[in-house]
Amino acid sequence: MLRYLTVPVTAFQQNCSIVWCDQTMAAAVIDPGGDLPELLAEVDRLGLKLEQIWLTHAHIDHAGGTGTLARERGLPIVGPHPGDQFWIDGLAQQSRMFGFPPAEPFTPTRWLADGDRVQIGESVLAVRHCPGHTPGHVVFHSAEIGRCFVGDVLFAGSIGRTDFPGGDHDTLIASITQRLWPMGDETVFIPGHGPESSFGRERRSNPYVGGT
């Protein structure tokens, strides 16, 4: 069965998630934005074999540590969707703009598209392309445990920003209502920032998408 641990990283307190198969102890890290020593210490503490990096999107707080981690550990980079290529190209500029350590450049080993699947050990997750916050944003859905790792698409009580280049409010709302809600009200999501919530709770009470 899939298990996960969420570790807030960087000054932005971005929710990096370590996910692993409890049968094989093979692990992936979702959105390693920074603070790599802390992340790797948790991997070691849990006795995991880190095998992959998965990216929801390429904003600096989610992708800033990706190039370094991939190089140091020889890991494949899976995701995001090709729509975020320009954000990857601009990581060095993002680093300077937001006061992050310099981000090493990288090229994803595998780009993702809507309907793809990713696998770690015996656990398989479905990929949905959910643009709006960024053009290439994807989410990772584990039907096995009723969890979805949504990056900055949706938050408890809020939604992702759409005022960055490539963002679009109507597109984001469509991603939430057409791609996330069908996963079911009971599905718990792990957002890129802040506490977990469920799709049902947000459908009922989120002021941006409630009642949709």
Automatic annotation (TrEMBL):
Cofactor: Zn(2+)
Keyword Aminoacyl-tRNA synthetase part of the UniProt annotation: no
Classification via SMART domains: Lactamase_B
Span of domain Metallo-beta-lactamase: 13-193
Keywords noted in UniProt: Hydrolase, Metal-binding, Zinc
Highest taxon above the source species: Bacteria
Name of one Pfam family that matches: Lactamase_B
Span list, region Disordered: 191-212
Record PANTHER family: HYDROXYACYLGLUTATHIONE HYDROLASE GLOC
Protein name in the entry: MBL fold metallo-hydrolase
